[in-house]
Structures are given as C-alpha cells and as structure tokens.
Amino acid sequence: TKANLLNEYATAYMGLYQYEKAINCYLQCIEQWQHANPNHENRNESIGIFYGNIATTYRQIGQAENALKYCFLAVPYRIRDGNKDFLARIYMDIAVNYSSLLRLDSAALYLNKAKPLVTSLNQPLLNTNFYLRQGENYKSVHDFNNALSSFQTAKENALKINHQFHLAGSINGIAESYL
Fold first, then answer.
1. Whole-angstrom distance between the N-terminal and C-terminal Cα of the chain?
2. Helix 124-140 crosses helix 104-121 at what angle (to 10 degrees)?
3. How far apart, in Å, are the Cα atoms of 159 and each of 85, 117, 136, 168?
4. Which of 44, 74, 128, 132 is exposed most, by the fewest CB atoms within 10 A?
5. How far is CA 90 from the centre of its chain?
6. How many CB atoms lie within 10 A of CB 98?
7. CA 142 to chain CA centroid, nearest Å
8. How would you class 175 by CB atoms within 10 Å of its CB: exposed for 0-12, middle for 13-18, buried for 19 or more?
9. pLDDT tens digit string along 71-120?
10. Given this model, what pLDDT does residue 4 score?
11. Largest alpha-carbon pair distance within the chain?
C-alpha cells in the first residue's frame, strides 16, 4: 500500500537524520489510513503507531511540546485498537515528555495510567521500561526510597531478558538513589 511505502521512506529519512521529511511521510501515512474503511482491522493501530512515531521523532529533536501533541493524538487510537501494550507505551511516552518539560506531577499522572496496564501484561521488557521511567520520576522529586524500589524492579526484569543496556540503566539508578 501507499502507506507502507511512505513508512519505508520515513524510516529511511530517520536514518539520514532528515526528521522533517520523516514527519511529513508519517503524516501522509496517517492521511492514507484516515481515508481507509473505518472498520479496517488495522486502521486504528496504524494511525496510533504513526502518531506515536511522530511523537518519538519530535522527542529525539528536543521538541517535547510537539511530541506531547502527537502522543495525545495517538491515545484515542490506542484505546480503540485495544492493544494494552501500545496504550501503556504511549502513556509512558507522555510521561517522558512531561518529565523533559519538568512537569513531574503530570508525568506521574501518566505513569499511574500506564501502571495497571503494565502490571496486567507483566512483560519483562515493558516492565523494565516502565520501572526505569518511574524510578527516574521518583528520583526527580527526591523520593529516593520509591526510586530505589522502581530501579530494583527494572533490574530484575532486565535480567530476565538479558537486556544489558537497561540493566546498566537500572544499576545506575540504584546507585543514584543511594546518593
């Protein structure tokens, strides 16, 4: 489909650090899907993914406000598609963007929205990502006991999947929680 081709272009542009061109391709993907049959089984999931990709792109170039805008646009599609993993991830992305804007109460609110989804799915990689983000948020508000607990849970989950990068991040978080 044209949307698939545009997605391939967007991926290539991302690799070339041509972020505006990538965003433009993602927007065209969304437009293609919005004209698709509203009952198409992949419509909501695809639109949610592309909004999320735009948000990620904006976050990578330091535009947290724009990233938030596209995260919020993704939420209704994530809810409609019923994929709890993707919904949890978009809530966590919202939290990350709020954190970068130093709006830590808002970040905590969206981490709290993600937590029951993360807990019910109980997937080690999702758990690791969530507890790292929660630990960072707790650390930012100087709640070092809860930060420590979150980083320890992240470490346990990173060990389950042998994810060295997240294991290092969790160990670093644990150390910083003791400082």
1. 53
2. 160
3. 20, 21, 19, 10
4. 44
5. 5
6. 23
7. 23
8. exposed
9. 999 999 999 999 999 999 999 999 999 999 999 999 999 999 999 999 99
10. 85
11. 55
Write the burial class of residue 23 (CB in 10 Å: 0-12 exposed, 13-18 middle, 19+ buried): buried
- Give CA–CA dist 128/132, Å, rounded: 6
CA distance to 73, 114, 135, 144, 175, per residue, from 52 (Å): 8, 15, 23, 31, 32
Cβ pair 119, 157 in contact under 8 A: no
**Positions in the chain short of pLDDT 50:** none
Query: What pTM did the predictor assign?
Result: 0.92
- In this structure, the chain runs to a length of 179
DSSP labels for 108-146? HHHHHHHHHHHHHH--HHHHHHHHHHHHHHHHHTT-HHH
Residue with tokens 């990709």: 53
CB atoms within 10 A of CB 140: 14
- 102 φ, ψ (degrees, to nearest 5): 60, 30
